[in-house]
Description:
This protein has 83 residues and is α+β, with helices and mostly antiparallel strands. It contains 3 helices and 4 strands, in the order E-E-H-E-E-H-H. It has one domain.
Amino acid sequence: MRVTISQWGNSLGVRFPIDYVRDAKLNPGDEIEFNPQPDNTVNLVPIPKKGNRQKLLKALAKIAKRKPSGPDIAHNFRHGDRY
């Protein structure tokens, strides 16, 4: 894919074609890590949103609350019937 570098104020910018944006599931405001390579190429890696991690942690906490608490499985294996 070929794109053109544009001047935006004192910075340079690149516009991504909509097909790439849709495939990569990018949205305005998303962050991308820019990694220049020794061979004069650039890798762009989308950075996951922090909000998604917070949602995941909340969901995991809900699951942990629903999980019934009971005796330690390893303890039962070591000291209980094995078969």
